[in-house]
Amino acid sequence: MGNLLCCVQVDQSTVAIKERFGKFDEVLEPGCHFLPWCLGSQISGHLSLRLQQLDVKCETKTKDNVFVNVVASIQYRAIANNASDAFYKLTNTRSQIQAYVFDVIRASVPKLNLDDAFEQKNDIAKAVEDELEKAMSAYGYEIVQTLIVDIEPDEHVKRAMNEINAAARLRVAANEKAEAEKIVQIKRAEGDAESKYLAGLGIARQRQAIVDGLRDSVVGFSVNVPGTTAKDVLDMVLITQYFDTMKEIGASSKSSAVFIPHGPGAVRDVTEQIRDGLLQGSVHQHPNL
């Protein structure tokens, strides 16, 4: 119906290319236009002004000889004022953009190691965008945004990288565990040393108290019982303690057996040994006696 009335409609965000007898005439904006086909005017085609996106996957190699797949996302659109260039100068816009992306990525990534390629994704995207902007502007296209959305190494490389990271983390964990065990052992040794030191002090004080108590008993008994010597009193005290110890052992309810030599000679030997030890302790405690 529109062709019969010599009218044509151009949709929003679209321009139409008008030709007259096969030669470019003008660019028709969105809306309704008079098109006298009988005078050789016709619509050669339409060009969308909407933002378009092209994802390009490029395989290349890094400086450390790792093959990676780099995925670039290109957002572009035709420039309304240069619609004729965008329509006539390029046969396949997407193929042209893809070629430029391949060229820039394969020139940039081989200069970087794998780790640097991940860190410098923005620099690679900027280089691609600058090259595309310079090349595609001559064809009536504007490059809106360029993104490097993924850098994917070979599956074997990814597995090796994961194993390296796992080994590094295990090594750190092992070091931390060893350090913790070292601290525990040091603290345990310090605790044992402190415990033994305090136990030694307790034993020394206990023995000193026993010596002081026996000495006081001997002195008090000698004063209250005239004619007795210190040796007699000490022998009697030691023998009394000896029999008290025997009594406690015999009254114990435990099943363990203790064999102690017993008899007048044994009692005399025990008495002499204890007395000699106490006298030596007294000499060390009171060297002026």
TrEMBL record:
It holds the Pfam family Band_7. SUPFAM superfamilies: Band 7/SPFH domain. The lineage of its organism: Eukaryota, Viridiplantae, Streptophyta, Embryophyta, Tracheophyta. CDD domains: SPFH_like_u4. It comes from the Eukaryota. Residues 5-165 form the Band domain. This is Hypersensitive-induced response protein. It comes from Actinidia chinensis var. chinensis. Gene3D superfamilies: Band 7 domain (3.30.479.30). Keywords: Lipoprotein, Myristate.
